[in-house]
Amino acid sequence: MDAEEFRAEGQTSAEVTIVVCASCRDESGSDAHPRAGERLAQATREVSRGKPVRVQQVECLGNCKRRLSAALLRDGCWSYVFGDLTEHSGADLLTGAELFTQTVDGTLPWRGRPDSLKRGLIARIPPSDFLKDII
C-alpha cells in the first residue's frame, strides 16, 4: 500500500506503540538498577495514561552508542527509531505518538515534532507494503 492508498482507506487515528529500550544506561554508563531506560519507560507510561497510545519495553534496541532509545510503531505505517533521549523524554515521545496517530500518509510529521525527536532520529523504516521490487 502506498501513501495514496493509505489515505484512500482513511487510515487515521490508529493506535501508536511507543517501544522503550529498558536496558539503556545513562550517560555515565552505570549498571545501577533500575536502568535509565526502565525509568524512561515508566515516565512515558505515566504521561501516556488515558491516551490512545501503548507503551511497551524491550530489552535492547541495539542502539547503545546513542544511549536511551525508543521507537514509534503503527500498523501499516513507517516506524521510527530515536536515540540520545533522556529519562525525561516521556512527554516528547507522547507528543510524537499523538502526532503520529493523526497522520494521513503513514509518516510522522516533522512539523510539531519535539526537538529531541528531530535531533535524535536514528532511522525510519518503511512498512513492508510500501516496498517495491527491483527489476
The number of domains is 1
Low-confidence stretches: 1-12
Structural class assignment: alpha+beta
Spell the H/E element sequence: HEHEEEHHE
In DSSP terms (H or I, runs of 4 or more residues), the helix count works out at 4
**Beta-strand residue fraction:** 15-25%
Distance between the termini: 19 Å
Largest sheet: 5 strands, mixed
Q: Which terms summarize this structure?
A:
5 strands, alpha+beta, 22% strand, disordered N terminus, globular
Summarize the topology:
Layout: H1 3-8, E1 16-21, H2 36-48, E2 53-58, E3 68-73, E4 79-85, H3 90-101, H4 115-119, E5 121-125
Parallel strand pairs: 1-2
Antiparallel strand pairs: 1-3, 3-4, 4-5
InterPro entries: DUF1636
Pfam family, one: DUF1636
Protein name: DUF1636 domain-containing protein
Could you describe the 3D structure shown?
This is DUF1636 domain-containing protein. Pfam families: DUF1636. With 135 residues, the chain is of the alpha+beta class. The protein has one domain: Glutaredoxin (3-Layer(aba) Sandwich), CATH 3.40.30. The chain is built from four helices and five strands. The chain has helices spanning 3-8, 36-48, 90-101, 115-119; strands at 16-21, 53-58, 68-73, 79-85, 121-125. The protein has a five-stranded mixed beta sheet with strand order 2-1-3-4-5. Helix 2 (36-48) links the parallel strand 1 (16-21) and strand 2. Helix 2 (36-48) packs across helix 3. The model is unreliable at 1-12 (pLDDT under 50).
